[in-house]
Amino acid sequence: MNTGKKLLLGALCGIALLQAPALAGDYPVKPVRIIVPFGPGGANDMVARVLSEPLSADLGQAVIVENRPGASTIIGANVVARAEPDGYTLLLSGSSTYTVLPALSRSLPYDTLRDFDLLGVVADLPMVLVTNAAGPIQSAPQVLERARSEPGKLTYATYGTGSVTHLMGEIFSMVADVELSPVPYRGSAQAVLGVMGSEVDIAPDTLAATLPRIQSGHLRALASFGPRRVAQLPDVPTMAELGLPDATFSGWIAIALPKGTPPEVRQRLSRALEKAMASDPVRQALDKAAMLPVFLPEAPFKTRVEQEIGTFKKVAAQANIVLE
Predict the structure, then answer these.
(1) What is the CATH number of the domain that holds 198?
(2) Mind spelling out the 3-state secondary structure of the chain?
(3) Is residue 155 within 8 Å of 183, Cβ to Cβ?
(4) Which of UniProt's keywords are assigned here (predicted)?
(5) Is 10 inside a domain boundary?
(6) What is the pLDDT of residues 165-215, one digit of tens each?
(7) Pick from 97, 98, 218, 205: which is nearest to 159 by CA?
(8) pTM score, two decimals?
(9) Is residue 14 part of a domain?
(10) pLDDT per position as a tens digit, 234-249
């Protein structure tokens, strides 16, 4: 290679090296998409839309919420996992996507830790154990008494085989050393109706999904799965208070990016997200929806994912739960 060509090649390489950080530093220069792997109207969709306005104001670009439901959130998650890692395609979803499927599925097209940069957890979803308010069960100790006297006869509703509520029911059963029978439904709304119609005895579910029915007198809250009592149900004990601290669990919603997103872009989004989560409109909207507004950044988010995948793998192995 002659001297002229070497100089030209060196100049081009230098320009490329200078441009990459500059482009990341200029981020964003076009609209940002938040992919929600659920249909419109649910908790994840609501959180994405609440966040889109303050994020847009902070970033100076439109933040568009795009629903990509299907295949138990796999379709939407895989869209983000395979997207260009440039900060313009975000995933907003919950533990079903980030920890449950990776722990249980044998043929998942993505790997949470391999294919995503974990930006932050933005909402915790308190979980409660409920029953039909008109039914015979008055308290959580009665659940345990009945389960011990009639092993396998007490039923609980789930969102479906291998769902987070299925795993929660199995964890509760194992920790309490009782045998319960799961009954799969096609989502939270159907599971709640199953409890209200006395098709099943109990159900673990989010406070967001059950609180209106508890307040209207159709459901009775027996216990909460969180580390402390929920503000909306101050008289309802926690699992820890009932002597079952290992049955503690909270649902959550978080945002991730395709793996390899430049650090400058991740930091820019992280700052915008933390600021949005501290704003009164966002906090008030999540409080009203019975969610806890939080901001858990990348490192502790990754720790949570690693711990939950490990826990769910153990539970699935013990309960022989496999998703093909």
Answers:
(1) 3.40.190.10
(2) CCHHHHHHHHHHHHHHHHHHHHHHHCCCCCCEEEEECCCCCCHHHHHHHHHHHHHHHHHCCCEEEEECCCHHHHHHHHHHHCCCCCCCEEEEEEHHHHHHHHHHECCCCCCHHHHEEEEEEEEEECEEEEEECCCCCCCHHHHHHHHHHCCCCCEEEECCCCCHHHHHHHHHHHHHCCCCEEEECCCHHHHHHHHHCCCCCEEEEEHHHHHHHHHCCCEEEEEECCCCCCCCCCCCCECCCCCCHHHCCCEEEEEEEECCCCHHHHHHHHHHHHHHHHCHHHHHHHHHCCCEEEEEEHHHHHHHHHHHHHHHHHHHHHHCCCEC
(3) yes
(4) Signal
(5) no
(6) 999 999 999 999 999 999 999 888 999 999 999 999 999 999 999 999 999
(7) 205
(8) 0.88
(9) no
(10) 999 999 999 999 999 9
Whole-angstrom Cα distance, residue 204 to residue 191? Answer: 9
**Residue 20 binned pLDDT confidence (cut-offs 50, 70, 90):** very low
Same domain as 262, residue 234: no
Written as six digits, the tokens of 284 are 């008030």
Q: How many domains are contained in the chain?
A: 2
Q: Tell whether 119 and 43 lie within a shared domain.
A: yes
